[in-house]
Amino acid sequence: MSEITADSTIYDLLKAKPEATEALFKFGMGCVGCAIARGETIREAAEAHGIPLPELLSALGIKE
After folding, report:
1. Alpha-carbon gap, residue 64 to 28, rounded angstroms
2. Residue 41 in 3-state DSSP?
3. Backbone angles phi, psi at 56, to 5 degrees
4. What is the pTM of this model?
5. DSSP three-state, residue 39
6. What gap in Å lies between CA 40 and CA 31, rounded to an integer?
7. 9 has which bridge partners?
8. CB-side exposure of 43: number of CA atoms within 13 Å?
9. Can you tell me the distance from the alpha carbon of 1 to that of 58, in angstroms, rounded to the nearest whole number?
10. Among residues 61, 52, 53, 55, which one has the least CA distance to residue 7?
């Protein structure tokens, strides 16, 4: 699997880093059970939830 970045889908993030669930929940993101997670990127999810992308990426431990 390629490196997870801001342009990876939430689905790919959770497959590669299941522990990311905790960080997503801290930001109020229920992405684990969301059908949109398969096609929505981390960048898009941050924007949709009004979360500053750098802050989310830092919490997830990934690069843009």
Report:
1. 21
2. strand
3. -65, -45
4. 0.86
5. coil
6. 10
7. 41
8. 7
9. 21
10. 53
> What is the number of residues in the chain?
64
Question: DSSP states of 2-32 as a string?
Answer: PPPBTTSBHHHHHHH-TTHHHHHHHTT--GG
Q: Tens digit of pLDDT per residue, the chain (64 long)?
A: 579 999 999 999 999 999 999 999 999 887 666 777 778 999 999 999 999 999 999 999 998 8
Tell me, what's the pLDDT at 7? 96
Q: Residue holding tokens 């929505």?
A: 40
SS3 42: helix
Q: Could you state, in order of their start, the residue ranges of all structural domains in the chain?
A: 10-60
Residue 53 is which amino acid? L
Q: What is the pLDDT of residue 23?
A: 92
